[in-house]
């Protein structure tokens, strides 16, 4: 159960582990405690042979607005950024999305195997609006998960798409009424659990291997872009403008 200090909590429903991100007063922005919580929960999902599928979700109004810029990026040894981005999983994981999944929140969704979203959900990678780039696989995984031109639209404008469009494009598996994404995601996880667990695990092993091969070059290119961004004056301006709640004044440097 959750308490006032909890940012990530879990519950087991049959053979399904449900992971809740709960920091709604900060729009579920990801700080080190959330990263540690996600990492610990997914370690449990990976290590417990009685768990055959997982669901990760936010709160009723927001999945996650991304990295807490004041706290900075955080990682775990097994999961990488946010405890999930570089994780090699053999257990299926479904994202259940209500409200915005922006920036790092979208990158968490992209790290999952299936996506269930309510009609309130929105998906976006707004980093360019602050002179940043997605450094947690958002660039190359969005191009893989969405039609190329749509991924380009998200990455170059920073503007989001809604759940209905995401479903039409094949990114979202199922769209629900508001407040029903978690229940539908658990039902989908339970459907997976009715299959042979060894076959599911070995299918996941193949899928994970394909992702590793596809991701390697993407990580290399992302590292090059990150090195440019961290030394950019526009990046400092973009972050300062965010905290000052004003429009940034770009210089192109």
Descriptive keywords:
253 residues, alpha/beta, 2-enoyl-CoA Hydratase, Chain A, domain 1, six-stranded mixed sheet, three-stranded mixed sheet, globular
Give a description of the structure.
With 253 residues, the protein is of the alpha/beta class. It has one domain (8-198): 2-enoyl-CoA Hydratase, Chain A, domain 1 (Alpha-Beta Complex), CATH 3.90.226.10. The chain contains 8 helices and 11 strands. It has helices at residues 32-47, 104-110, 138-145, 148-157, 163-168, 181-193, 197-230, 233-244; strands at 8-13, 16-21, 53-57, 75-76, 80-81, 93-97, 100-102, 114-118, 122-124, 161-162, 174-176. A hairpin with a 3-residue loop joins strand 4 (75-76) and strand 5 (80-81). Helix 2 (104-110) crosses helix 3 (138-145) and helix 3 packs antiparallel against helix 4. The mean pLDDT is 95.
Main beta-sheet annotation: 6 strands, mixed
Element order: H for helix, E for strand? EEHEEEEEHEEHHEHEHHH
The figure for the number of domains is: 1
Individual helix count: 8
Cα Rg:
18 Å
Task: Give the overall shape.
Answer: globular
CATH class wording: Alpha Beta
The secondary-structure class comes to alpha/beta
User: Per CATH, what is the topology?
Assistant: 2-enoyl-CoA Hydratase, Chain A, domain 1
Q: For the residues shown, what is the average pLDDT?
A: 95
Architecture per CATH nomenclature, i.e. the level-2 architecture? Alpha-Beta Complex
Gap from first CA to last CA: 48 Å
Look at the structure and name the CATH superfamily: 2-enoyl-CoA Hydratase, Chain A, domain 1
């Amino acid at each position: 159960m959750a308490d006032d200090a909890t940012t990530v909590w879990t519950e087991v429903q049959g053979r399904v582990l449900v992971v809740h991100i709960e920091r709604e007063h900060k729009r579920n922005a990801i700080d080190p405690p959330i990263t540690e919580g996600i990492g610990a929960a997914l370690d449990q999902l990976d290590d417990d042979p009685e768990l055959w599928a997982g669901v990760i979700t936010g709160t009723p109004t927001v999945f996650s607005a991304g990295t807490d810029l004041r706290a900075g990026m955080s990682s775990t040894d097994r999961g990488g950024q946010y405890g999930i981005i570089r994780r090699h999983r053999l257990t299926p994981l479904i994202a259940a999305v209500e409200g915005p999944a922006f920036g790092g929140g979208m990158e968490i969704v992209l790290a999952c195997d299936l996506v269930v979203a309510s009609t309130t959900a929105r998906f976006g990678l707004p980093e360019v609006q602050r002179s940043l780039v997605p450094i947690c696989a958002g660039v190359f995984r969005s191009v893989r998960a969405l039609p190329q031109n749509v991924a380009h639209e998200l990455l170059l404008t920073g503007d989001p798409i809604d759940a209905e469009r995401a479903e039409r494009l094949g990114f979202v598996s199922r769209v629900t009424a508001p407040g029903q994404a978690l229940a539908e995601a658990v039902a989908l996880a339970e459907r997976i659990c009715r299959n042979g667990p060894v076959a599911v695990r070995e299918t996941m092993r193949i899928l994970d291997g394909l992702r590793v091969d596809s991701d390697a070059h993407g990580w290399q290119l992302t590292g090059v872009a990150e090195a440019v961004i961290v030394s950019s004056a526009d990046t400092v301006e973009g972050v300062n403008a965010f905290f000052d709640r004003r429009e940034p004044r770009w210089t192109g440097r």
